[in-house]
Automatic annotation (TrEMBL):
The chain holds residues 74 to 440 of 452 of the full protein. Keywords: Metal-binding, Molybdenum, Oxidoreductase. Residues 46-230 form the Oxidoreductase molybdopterin-binding domain. Residues 274-357 form the Moybdenum cofactor oxidoreductase dimerisation domain. Its cofactor is Mo-molybdopterin. The keyword Chloroplast does not apply. It comes from Streptomyces prasinopilosus. One of its GO terms (molecular function) is heme binding. One of its GO terms (biological process) is sulfur compound metabolic process. This is DMSO/TMAO reductase YedYZ, molybdopterin-dependent catalytic subunit. The keyword Metal-binding applies.
Length: 367
């Protein structure tokens, strides 16, 4: 019998369920610190969370890009304790689904897009501890001809349109794999929770979430470029603005902002509030955030609460005294250190990836 698709409890005041996935409610982040608590962290599962045992777990490295390991027949293996014995690193980074914000293509722009109808809650930030993928690759005997590195998960094969696409796997260019990618075994000071990849997951800072393969079981290291449905059919941009074969496979995340508020939150007229939110970018740190409480007619700068850092979000706040009863729209627009600013309209693509436009957050002012 199939178990639950997600192991951890998903109280409805913290999560919105979308099939096998669970989205963090932004209002549940109010009062939390910089890091998303593990119990509040969104879950994106193609199938279901496998409950694995770290002591039986092995990470197998194989492929034409390893010295002396021409095929799957001569793999190099690491156990959980082998990884834990390597030099450890700790980093604060976000994981964000490429489709985060997708529902706003429809709600704000009237575009029909396929995929999980996320609001803005398919992102979380954690303090991850693990080892550098570069250290593991070098220990496995990286050959000078290696070009691509493809981690694969131990969760069930993904079936789409009646056809199995195999296990979740997605190639990384060697340069990124050797740069800042981690094999993480801890999340916010605890062993990885089952839903987030126990015992070990890949963590690819600033890139779309699909690159951060959970429950990693093997890594193909190849002397030829690798393809998988997750970098050919999915996680490219398709549509009128893009070539027929789609854009290049998605890498860096885009720029977004969210209020730590429920959609439709109510505020008493004439009472001073402090609105809180967070902004983030895959292209660098957040440099400034401007907020409008009158539907975009006027803007003022928010106070930033975190020193801007790449790979994670910046918390901010702005005071507001609602002046008149009735519906209102709150907007936040971020600018990053790469010079990007959130546009009013996002360029659409059929699968609704990389939504970056300013979101109009509906609230009601009451007497
Ligand atoms: N890894 C495996 N093995 N299986 C999956 O379904 N989902 C990916 C990625 N890694 C996935 C996976 C996607 S699309 C995202 S957005 C992130 O995991 C989500 O990570 P989280 O569930 O820890 O938040
Ligand atoms: Mo995702």
């Amino acid at each position: 019998a199939a178990g639950p698709t997600i192991v951890k409890p998903l109280p409805s005041e913290w999560f919105v369920r979308h099939g096998t996935n669970a989205e963090t409610r932004w209002e549940a982040l109010r009062g939390t610190g910089h890091h998303t608590p593990n119990e509040l962290f969104f879950v994106r599962n193609h199938t279901a969370t496998p409950v694995l045992d770290a002591h039986d777990w092995r990470l197998r490295l194989w492929g034409s890009g390893l010295r002396g390991a021409p095929g799957e027949d001569r793999p190099v293996e690491f156990g959980y304790d082998d990884l834990r014995a390597l030099p450890a690193v700790t980093r604060t980074v976000s994981v964000e689904c490429a489709g985060n914000g997708r529902s706003h293509y429809t709600s704000q722009q009237g575009e029909a897009v396929s995929g999980t109808a996320w609001g803005l809650g398919a992102i979380g930030v954690a303090r991850w501890r693990g080892v550098r993928l570069a250290d593991v690759l070098r220990r496995a005997g990286l050959s000078s001809s290696a070009v691509d590195v493809q981690p694969r998960g131990l969760d069930a094969e993904y079936v789409s349109g009646g056809e199995s696409l195999g296990r979740v796997r997605r190639p990384l260019p060697l340069a990124k794999a050797l740069d800042d990618v981690l094999l993480a075994y801890e999340m916010n000071g605890e062993p990885l929770p089952y839903d987030h990849g126990y015992p070990v997951r890949v963590l690819v800072p600033s890139w779309v979430g699909i690159a951060s393969v959970k429950w990693v079981g093997d890594i193909e290291v190849s002397a030829q470029p690798l393809l998988s449905p997750w970098n050919t059919a999915f996680y490219r941009l398709f549509g009128p603005a893009h070539p027929p074969e789609g854009s290049a496979p998605l890498t860096r995340q885009t720029l977004k902002s969210a209020f730590e508020l429920a959609s439709g939150a109510t505020f008493p007229v004439g009472e001073r509030q402090v609105l809180h939110g967070r902004s983030w970018s895959g292209a660098g740190a957040v440099a400034r955030v401007d907020v409008s409480t009158d539907g975009g007619a006027s803007w003022r700068p928010a106070r930033l609460h975190d020193a801007g850092r790449a790979g994670t979000w910046t918390r901010w706040s702005v005071p507001w005294t609602p002046g008149a009863p009735g519906p209102a729209q709150l907007l936040a627009r971020a600018t990053d250190t790469a010079g990007r600013r959130q546009p009013d309209v996002a360029v659409p693509n059929t699968q609704g990836y990389l939504f970056d436009a300013v979101v109009r957050h509906p609230v009601t002012v009451v007497r």
